[in-house]
Amino acid sequence: PWKCTVFDPQKQKTVHFSLYFFSEDILFYPHFLFKNMLDKPASAGPNYMTIQNIGLLMTYNELDIIREVMDNNLKFFDKIFVLDGSVDGTTEIIQEYSNVRYLLHDKDIYPKRKIRDGARQFLMEKAQEMYPIEGWFTILCGDEIFVDDPNKIAQKAETAGAEIVNWHPLNFFLHTSEKDTPLDLTQPLQDQIKHYSPGGLEVRQFKNKPNTFFNLNNHRKVYPEGIKATPLLDYPILKHYVVRGPQQFIHKSSTGTQGVREETTKEQRIYFDQINDFGKQVRVYDGSFKEFEPGNRPPFIIQYLNWHKYRKVDWGLFSFIKKYFKSKSPR
Question: Measured between alpha carbons, how far is 243 from 240 in angstroms, rounded to an integer?
């Protein structure tokens, strides 16, 4: 036998074991060590180990940023399944990446019908056909770049018994103060777009388990039926490049989340003072995301209680209370 020592990420301790060769074809080994090691991401280091984590990407005409997004995804994912409806060259760039295991075009499933979030069923179904039904799925978007490591987050969620993970998007946009600073489209947009506003939580990961399905007509719900809404008690972060310049709107009329038009010309608005209607903060990225930074986030209860700092309160049915106190306040 070969005597070996390795760090077990699930038990967070060093494990000693032996490898036994019974023939040229049969090898007995600890399951946690070699599971998925043959398919680890190309950029992963020698100590990289994780549970299975498959990316599900839906995208549409993101030519100006898709290469930055896919380069980032290559760090974390060895398996990405794509549903793409692009006509601007996005598809051709996605096809260059070796971790894209399956690519489906919108017109292949719905020639004359609008694609909704439920269409991820086609990607999930194919992934579960090709690979074991275990581990996690991560929702990928053509304009989002992970800051936290989604593999580490999936492992953390698995250990905690969660079935979904809420990610906190930091929404990047072009600020009105930058109107006279043109973008250089030959350089990474991440290096040029610095203003951001903390956004609302969005599910970006869910457990990969049998007997789950997406409602094909459903929109805005990004995880399937059969998954419990049991969240991880942490808010990992990603960068969402909401508005990136006029080049973004050559082949589409809005961002999906920001469709504001100039009142006079009816053209897509490019510069904003605040990108979120509910937002209370705008920050300039200086190399650190401060209290959102991986490894620097406070305990979950503090993260949860801090929400009032980043967004306005939605009073809903109790808006009359807000109006009452506002009328009583001194002017």
Answer: 9
